[in-house]
UniProtKB/TrEMBL annotation:
<feature type="transmembrane region" description="Helical">
    <location>
        <begin position="254"/>
        <end position="275"/>
    </location>
</feature>
<feature type="transmembrane region" description="Helical">
    <location>
        <begin position="383"/>
        <end position="404"/>
    </location>
</feature>
<dbReference type="InterPro" id="IPR029485">
    <property type="entry name" value="CAT_C"/>
</dbReference>
<feature type="transmembrane region" description="Helical">
    <location>
        <begin position="193"/>
        <end position="211"/>
    </location>
</feature>
<dbReference type="InterPro" id="IPR002293">
    <property type="entry name" value="AA/rel_permease1"/>
</dbReference>
<dbReference type="Pfam" id="PF13520">
    <property type="entry name" value="AA_permease_2"/>
</dbReference>
<keyword id="KW-1003">Cell membrane</keyword>
<feature type="transmembrane region" description="Helical">
    <location>
        <begin position="33"/>
        <end position="55"/>
    </location>
</feature>
<comment type="similarity">
    <text>Belongs to the amino acid-polyamine-organocation (APC) superfamily. Cationic amino acid transporter (CAT) (TC 2.A.3.3) family.</text>
</comment>
<feature type="transmembrane region" description="Helical">
    <location>
        <begin position="579"/>
        <end position="597"/>
    </location>
</feature>
<keyword id="KW-0812">Transmembrane</keyword>
<dbReference type="GO" id="GO:0015171">
    <property type="term" value="F:amino acid transmembrane transporter activity"/>
</dbReference>
<feature type="transmembrane region" description="Helical">
    <location>
        <begin position="100"/>
        <end position="124"/>
    </location>
</feature>
<dbReference type="Pfam" id="PF13906">
    <property type="entry name" value="AA_permease_C"/>
</dbReference>
<feature type="transmembrane region" description="Helical">
    <location>
        <begin position="334"/>
        <end position="355"/>
    </location>
</feature>
<feature type="transmembrane region" description="Helical">
    <location>
        <begin position="287"/>
        <end position="314"/>
    </location>
</feature>
<keyword id="KW-1133">Transmembrane helix</keyword>
Amino acid sequence: MLCQNVRHFGQKLVRRRPLEPTERSESQLARCLNTLDLVALGVGSTLGAGVYILAGEVAKDKAGPAIVLSFLVAALSSVLSGLCYAEFGGRVPCSGSAYLYSYVTVGQLCAFITGWNLILSYVIGAASVARAWSSTFDSLTGNHISRVLQGSFSLHVPYVLAEYPDFFALGLVLLVTGILVLGASESALVTKMFTGLNLLVLSFIILSGFIKGDLHHWQLTEHDYKLATSGSNDTSSLGPLGSGGFVPFGFDGILRGAATCFYAFVGFDCIATAGEEARNPQRSIPVGIVISLFICFLVYFGVSSALTLMLPYYQIDPDSPLPQAFLHVGWAPATYAVAVGTLSALSSSLLGAMFPTPRVIYAMADDGLLFGRLARIHARTHTPIAATIVSGILAALMAFLFKLSDLVDLMSIGTLLAYSLVAFSVLVVRYQPEQDLGKNEKTEVEIIEIKPKLEASLLESVPEVGTSKTLKSLCNPINTIPTPKSGRIVYGCALLLALLLTILCLILAQWPSQLFSGDPVCSTATVLLLLLILRITFIIWRQPQNPTPLHFKVPGVPVVPLMSIFVNVYLMMQMTFRTWAQFGVWMVIGFAVYFGYGIRHSLEKNSDEQPPALNSQALDRNIPSA
C-alpha cells in the first residue's frame, strides 16, 4: 500500500500537459500582436541600459578592441537558446514560455520550478531597471533627488534594503503596470515608440564612431602606451593593457568578455510569453526571436566598434563610456543624445521585463498550479488583470525598498535554468511519436485501423537478446519514425546527458587549473566524460525523428540543444555560494506553494499515469468495450 501511494505521488510530479493547445487557453487572450510588435518587444527587452554601459566595461578590462569578437561569440551562444525557443514557440503558441514547454515535456514539478524562477527573474529584472531609470534621471538633475531622499528617509539595514526608499522607481513601475492593464496592443505601441527612439540614438552613435573614429586605436603598440604616460615606462596608471594590437588580452580575454556579453542578449524569451496574443504565433514567434537577436547583435557589434574606434580602450570610462568618448572627439552636445537614448532604452526594457511576468503567472494559475484568481481575464482589455496587478505591486515594492544589485545573479540563475530546460525540451520532443490523443479527434474506426500497425511497429523494435544486440539496436534502429520505445530511449539518454554535462561544467568552472595543468585524475575524468557524452549523443542522433512539418525547426539536433545546455549550465556554475543560497530560499517558498496548493489543484488530475502518447495501452483505454 505504501509503495502504491509513493508511486502515485511520484506520478503526480511528472504528469504532463498535452502538446496541443487546450481549448480553454485558446480564446482567453486577444490575438492582437503582429510580427513587428513581437520584434519590438524582443529588441526593447534586450537592448536596455547595458548597451550604453556594458561595452565600456568589457572593452577596458577584458577584451580591448576584440570586444566585437566577444559579442559575436555571445550572440552565437544566445542564438542556440533562441533557436530552441523559436521551435517551441511555433509548436505551442500559448502563454507561459519555458514554463509551458517544460510542462509538456519534462513534467509538472519541473515546470513549476521553471515558472516559479521565471517570475522571480522577471520581477527582479523589472525592479532593477526601474531603479536604474530613477538613478539615470537623478544623475541628469545633479543627484538632487537622491540627496533629499537619503536625508529624509534613510534606511539602515545592510545587505537587504537600499540606502533610501526610491519613490520615483515605485511610481514608474505602477505607471507601467497601468499601461499593461490597458491591453497588449497598447503596451506594444508604447514599446515600439521607445524602442524606435533607442535604435535611432544608437544608429547615431554608430555612425559617429565610424566618422570620428581612428583605425589606429585597433592597432595600439607599446609606444602608444608610453606616449599616453608622457614617455614614462610606468604604464600602471592606465590599468590592464595586455599585449597591444586588436586582441590585447588574447583568446582568454575574448572568452571572458563573451561570458559577460552573453547577458546582454537576455530578454528575447519574452516574445515566447506572448504566444497566446500573437495573430499568427506559429510563424511570428520564430521570426520575431531570430530577427530580434540579429538586430541586437548588429547594434552591440556597431556600438562596441564605434566606442573602441573613438578612443583607445585603456582610456574608456567603464561607468560612462559613450559620453566620455564623445567628449574625447570634441562632440560634447552628443552626450544629451546619449542621455535620451539611455532613458528610452530603460523605458522599453522596463516594459519588456514587466510584460511577460503576468503571462507566466496567468499560465500557471490557469493550469491550477497557482491560485485560481490569478487567472482572471479582464472582459474588455483581454489582459490577465489580476496577475498584472499582483506582479506590478511586487516589482514596485522591490524597486522601492530593496538593494537589487545583490540579486542580479539570482535573476540570471532563473533565466539560464529556463534556457536549459527549453533546449532539453526540444531535444526530447523531436524524437517522440505523435501525441494525437490530446486532441480527442480520432474516431473509433481510426483508432482500430492504427492499432495493428502500431503493434507491428512495436514488435519490430524489440531487440534481440544479448548486450551486443541491444547496443546494435540502439545505434541502428529498425524504425524510420519514432515509437514509444525510441522516445523513452531518447528521454533517458537526454536525462543522462544533462547530468554528465553538469558534471563537466562543474569541473571546468571549479577546477580549471588542475585540468589545464595536466592533473592525471582530473584530465582522465574529463576525457572519460567527453567520450561518454559523445557516445550517448551518437545514440540519440541515430534515433528516428518526428517528421511532422513545422514553420521552424532547430537545425543540427541533437548537437545544437546540447551545446545550448552546456553554455547555460557553465554560466550557472559561475554563480557564488551566496547566490545559490538565495536561490534555495526562493525554492523553499515555491515548494511550499506547490505542495500546499498546486499539486492538489492541478487540472491534469486525470493524467497521473502517463502523458498522452500513441501507445497500445492508451489505444486500449480509448476503444469502447463491446
